[in-house]
Amino acid sequence: MTQPTLIRREGAHLLTALGLANRSVPVLPLRAGKVPFGNCRACRDNACGGRPNMKSPGPCTCPRPCHAWAAATTDPATLTGRPWATAWAQAAAVAYHPGGIGLTVVDLDHADAVAWARRTLPATRTVLTTRGEHWIYQGAMPSANAVRPGVDIKSTMVYARWLGPGTGTMTILPGAVRSLIVTKPSPVRPVTAPVPTGGGECRHRTPVYLERGIAMAEQRITQAGSSVHATVYRTFLAVLSAHGRCGCLTETHAARLFAAAQTKGETARHCTDAWSNARTALGM
């Protein structure tokens, strides 16, 4: 590859990244093979101490594009700074962190997967990929690979390749997508509160009622414009007050609320503390 070609490619990727960052989309460079750059020497094998790392919810504090999705940033100074220059010179593509802006990408890897999505999922914004399509929904959730043949879920704590804005109107993340990663829900920590009256039967076990409550709670968190800590705590308090004493809540529901909070910048520790404090306030 000639030097002018390399410069043009580097400039194009960096311009794309800066444009996305200006729209508050956290971005990072990818090298050949659509894979992130390896950790720098100081962070190799997580020698930097664990957090931030690729298994933590927070951004990477290393000034280099380390730790894959955790390196994604919206800071123009970081993107154009010297530690990133080599990465952009070698970059083959631009990626972004969907969960970081409250989005979920359903990655459909082949024609059969696309056909399944068209039969099963509500229409939303669609981006063409090399072999299939990305379906993008409003709302974040835990990520998972191979939820069915040719289908990956990319949202929190992963990256997705930027392939353009796509076409169509983006819709709210449906339960049909969330249910793809639910296998066998187990209860959140046992609650010692007395069983509700009414023959001991929980009035919240109607799936639609519970799903609506969790979806509204997620929306309340993700739409918080300020006082995110307080909003997260109040939302956890409301959910636990309504559903915490009757065994309705599962780890899956809690994970959805934690994921929504993390898209607003809350750490896993903050989420755990807020959940625990809400339980304590309710005498659980």
Structural commentary:
- The protein is of the alpha+beta class.
- Helix content is 38%, strand content 14%.
- The chain contains nine helices and ten strands.
- It has helices spanning 3-22, 76-80, 82-90, 111-120, 175-178, 207-222, 228-243, 251-263, 268-281; strands at 27-31, 35-36, 93-96, 103-108, 125-128, 133-138, 144-148, 151-154, 160-161, 171-172.
- Strands 4, 5, 6, 7, 8 and 10 form a six-stranded mixed beta sheet that branches. A four-stranded antiparallel beta sheet has the order 2-1-3-9.
- Helix 6 packs antiparallel against helix 7 and helix 6 runs parallel beside helix 8 (251-263).
Helix run count: 9
What is the SS-derived class?
alpha+beta
Instruction: Summarize model confidence as the mean pLDDT.
Output: 80
Strand content: 5-15%
For the secondary structure, the number of strands is 10
Please outline the major beta sheet: 6 strands, mixed
Oligomer: single chain
Uncertain segments are 1-7, 50-54, 183-201
Q: What is the rounded Rg?
A: 21 Å
SSE pattern: HEEHHEEHEEEEEEHHHHH
- What coarse outline follows from CA principal-axis ratios? globular
Termini Cα gap = 64 Å
Helix content: 25-40%
